[in-house]
UniProtKB/TrEMBL annotation:
Stretches of the chain forming a coiled coil according to its record: none
Gene3D superfamilies: NADP-dependent oxidoreductase domain
Location of the region described as Disordered in the Swiss-Prot/TrEMBL record: 1-22
A cellular-component GO term for this protein: cytosol
Full protein name: Aldo/keto reductase
Superkingdom of this protein's organism: Bacteria
Organism, as annotated: Agromyces bracchium
Amino acid sequence: MTGAIAPPTEQVETNADSGPITVPRRVHIGETGFEVHPLALGASTFGWTLDAEASGDILDRFVALGGSLIDTADSYAAGRSETIIGGWLASRATRDRVRIVTRVGRHPDHSGLAPASITRAVDASLERLGTDRIDLLCFHGDDPEVPLEESLGAIDALIAAGKVLAVGASDLSPERLIEARVLAANGLPRFQVLTTRYNLMERRAFEGATELVAHAQGLPVLPDFALADGFLGGAIRRRADVRRDARGERQARHLGRRGLRILRALDEVAAAHGTVPAAVAIAWLLARPTVVAPVTGVSRPEQVDALLGAASLELHRSELVELDRASA
């Protein structure tokens, strides 16, 4: 095949004793100044289907292989995800090696995006994470009851206090993103990223107006649930494969003619590259013009390797076309 579309290659340094050393590729997130590996580790299962020990093993593997962006929310497992990450940060002394993304707005004790709720939610997240700052704080959805300028005003104060370094949007409409850009032009904090559910199984909600606005604003996108709750990993092919739990129910939604067609396309591309379907699904996202770092969780440490390697996986144009066709 010809015409490969490749992400920027990994840097290679030379060691006189042992030969070349591969340095994990890094990308910049908007104007935050953050430089990270272009795969974010999603922590939505920490404290839910994974206990602290299993989560810590995954975090250890992620950082050991060059991962640096950890994505969570104050509502994940009612805050237990943040608590597990905080315990891991303290026990490994790794705070300065990683960037933390968390979301506020959906925790039952601090719901909504009123200034007081945001401030209390941030303080609670800082306590659970055991840190003095949140690298990237995202609004977890919209709050139509609160003017956006009030919410951003609260963020402005938190940035001034050093508790938040940058702000992002999670699942905001194109109209709200445009409104936010106008407010930023008038001095309020500017959204630095957009996180939204986007993957080969779930394309329609993002592609179209939201993608156009993100592209026009130069807004980097961190696609949430990049593997569609694990379905794109390829282990679920029949109803009998589905576990009887909440995550299994979400995966089962993707079973059907379209889902199996996508898995077959992923299988073919993965076989051609000697990798796994999940890595191909991540590489497809990284080929999208607005995507900077897909967000996905794993259930076992050994799954981290192939996903981080997806950042340097070259997909040919014909393979991207086939994946587009299968997921249309």
